[in-house]
Amino acid sequence: MYRYDEFDHKLVQERIQQFRHQVKRRLSGELTEDQFKPLRLMNGLYLQLHAYMLRVNVPYGAITSRQMRKFAHVARAYDRGFGHFTTRQNIQYNWVKLEETPDLLAELAEVEVTGIQSSGNCVRNITSDHYAGRIKDELADPRIYCELLRQYTVLHPEFSFLPRKFKIAVTGSPKDRAAVALHDIGLRMHLNDTGKLGFEVLVGGGQGRTPIIAKTIREWLPPEHLMAYVEAILRVYNLSGRRDNIHKARIKIIVNQMGIDQYRELVDQEFDRIKGDAKGIPEAEIQRIKAYFAPPEYEELPDFTDKLNTLRLTDKTFDLWMSSNVAEHKIGGYAIVNLTLKAPDRVPGDITATAMDAVADLADEYSLGEMRVNHRQNLVFVDVKQVDLHSLWKKLGPLELATPNLGQLTDMITCPGLDYCNLANARSIPVAQDINKHFVDVDRLIAIGDFTVNISGCMNACGHHHVGNVGILGVDKHGTEFFQLTLGGSSDEGASLGDRLGRALPQEEVPAAIEAIVDTYIDTREDDERFLDTYRRIGMVPFKEAVYGSVDTKVVA
Amino acid sequence: MGLIKEGKLVNDPFKNVSACDTVPAKGPVIVSIDQWIVRRDDLLKRSSLIGIWLKSDEHPEAIAGDLVHLSLIALEFPSFRDGRAYSYARLLRDKYDFSGEIRAVGDVLLDQLHFMVRSGFDAFEVESEDPLGAYNIAAADYSVWYQQTGDGRLSAAELRDKGVRR
User: Fold this and answer.
1) Which residues, listed in sequence order, are joined to residue A336 by a DSSP beta bridge?
2) Number of A:B CB contacts under 8 A?
3) Which of A258, A312, A329, B31 lies in disulfide reach of A262, CB 3.0 to 4.6 Å?
4) What is the complex's ipTM, to 2 decimals?
5) Would you say residue A555 has pLDDT above 50?
6) Predicted confidence (pLDDT) per residue in A480-530, tens digit
């Protein structure tokens, strides 16, 4: 894992000092709220419905136990004892006080974490595969490139006032766990015809009110040209992106208006001009960063699968957890363990300070002190010995972190919604809780299998509803909250946007509608076909009929 | 309002006539791009320094061929949120090799000065009772940068590579 050196520390300290001065000027009235807003946003500070919210970056989702303990401390000392993990591998605090934020940021800086560019019209936290460095199918560790990109984009003199926010995701695996096609730039490693590693570069993806799947702007880019190519994309966007309408300002809009071919031509012209330049990144720097992500020293452990199988036979709950929450590690004798923040009665992504401390202790004991947060709002222990799985599982249970529902219907993505957010039209959290109350039969959830439900409280789509197998969007109709369902979305390789099911439903009808969708799927699926594949095969009509009844199928919201 | 150039408070030798109907007979002037296009020959005959004021939707590419005649480009920030001028400044320095003055005008927010300096600006119209004091505070915000942006300063990575320690 990357560690700050003196340069990194100095820059963050200077940033905090600058922000401390800005907060002072705001509190004294020297800065108006309008002037202060972009300054605080670039440090991750939002003004929400009830209080300031601070969004803290977790670069590429990697968290040490020391950082997790600091998150817990911050939750206790500056918030109301909890934090919320988001879909962009960040943690948010919902109840911070403006005058305390410089001190809060100084505390976070001690563990090399910041709020820099977690908001604002700049390049946001670079996100990645939460299994990075630990999964067999990976071509190379994407975190190396994430860190290079992090440094390249932090306080970039030219690209800190873009037309709109800018999100970059990197995957090193053919299996896309980072939703790269839903980013402003998505980078997907693959080998070219001669077997050399490079990136497929996607551009112009995004969700929000105009969801678009990113398009390939370059089939294969050699890694040594990554920064120059990203710079060319950013410069063309900075100059050509729309600034007349906030809703049309993302790169996806200009790429669509121009067409990908013309955008590519502009980027290529600029890239050809600057590609000879190393962009201030000597080869030694790449090697320095690579070294931080060298694999830990693994023990040579015997394969423990047979003994685990015996334990699984004797304990059905353990067996369920093993099936859903544990993934194969690239090193024999080790496993990857997902800690789901999706217990039925809890707010998805929320975690208490007490649980954070406990998780940090467990990470030290069982996962070489390192964990990850993923874009589905769960935590991951990346280096667990197979022999320890049973005892770890027993300790996660009482913390409500062993709910065996990873990737299942109740492993929902949920935005904070109208309970917290001043953009929301509807409350997302109660809908998730209703669905949880409805789907309690564990065997049935397993029978349903892979099934993502994503809930957003407004069209800004923080809950990724466009790419949920079932998406749920909160809408406001004359002061009443309704929910619009979509089917067939997916954020992994072969990403797709959901199609609208029909008229929006009142909150109390949502669980039954999902039940009807699930029933239709189970009745029509072939062999072990996933819901997504069944939907793609049979289309919308059977689901529409099941939810609205045959009479109602022509009604559109 | 004061003009800061190369870290000093200076008197502005230029007269900004970009919004005027007439151009004075002599003395350094800043004209709009439209004025430049219409009066190019007359302005060149005046044998005084010439600057051009570019609005944020006016790409310096339009005057790239004329840069040898120009001593100053004023890049306007209509709002501190409009970041196009940063890229214009970089293109002027790196692509078009412009070595004259690049002046930040308009909504020049002090908190963004360090971004401007690093993008190639070397003169700033600062709105403050104490422009130099305000400039000096803002310019001292950062001593470390991750990026190389063509202003000659080394990136953190290059300093690391040279074995420089902080």
Assistant:
1) A327
2) 112
3) A258
4) 0.97
5) no
6) 999 999 999 999 999 999 999 999 999 999 999 999 999 999 999 999 999
Count how many residues are written for chain B. 166
The contacts of residue A527 (CB under 8 Å, 6+ apart) are: none
For the cut 50, the answer to whether the pLDDT of residue A420 exceeds it is: yes
Q: Are residues A377 and A513 in the same domain?
A: no
Same domain for A520 and A454, yes or no, is: yes
Same domain, A455 and A497: yes
Q: Is the pLDDT of residue A556 over 60?
A: no
Cα atoms found within 13 Å of the Cα of residue B70, Cβ hemisphere only: 27
pLDDT of residue A553 exceeding 80, the answer is: no
The SS3 of residue A294 is: coil
> Would you call B84 and A239 a contact, using CB atoms and an 8 Å cutoff?
yes
Looking up tokens 């299942």 gives A408
Q: What is the pTM for the complete model shown? A: 0.95
Domain boundaries, chain B: 2-141
Optimal mutation site among A153, A161, A287, interface B, most CBs of chain B within 10 A: A161
> Looking at per-residue confidence, does B152 or B10 come out higher?
B10
Q: Is there a domain that residue A85 lies in?
A: yes
SS3 of A314, please? helix
**C-beta atoms of B86 and A161 within 8 A:** yes
Residue in A10, A156, A273 closest to B166 by CB: A10
User: What does the pLDDT look like over B82-124, one tens digit per residue?
Assistant: 999 999 999 999 999 999 999 999 999 888 999 999 999 999 9
Tell me how close the Cα of B109 comes to any Cα of chain A, in angstroms.
Answer: 9
The sheet carrying A52-57 orders its strands as A45-47, A52-57, A90-96, A82-85, A350-352
Tell me: do A283 and A321 sit in the same domain.
no
DSSP at B91: I
Q: Is residue A322 part of a domain?
A: yes
User: Total domain count for chain A?
Assistant: 4
Residue A297 resides in a domain: no
Does the beta-carbon distance from B83 to A159 stay under 8 Å? Answer: yes
Where residue A386 sits, what CATH number does that domain have?
3.90.480.20
Residue B73 φ then ψ, to 5°: -120, 120
Alpha carbons A226 and B97: distance in angstroms, whole number = 25
Q: B2-141 has which fold? A: TIM Barrel (3.20.20)
Residue that terminates a domain, selected from A339, A366, A399:
A399
Q: Say what the pLDDT of residue A497 is.
A: 98
Domain extent, residue A369, equals 305-399
Q: Are A168 and A285 in the same domain? A: yes
Chain B residues with CB under 8 Å of A14 CB are 141-144
pLDDT score of A278: 76
Is A298 among the domain residues? no
Confidence of residue A345 (pLDDT cuts 50, 70, 90): confident
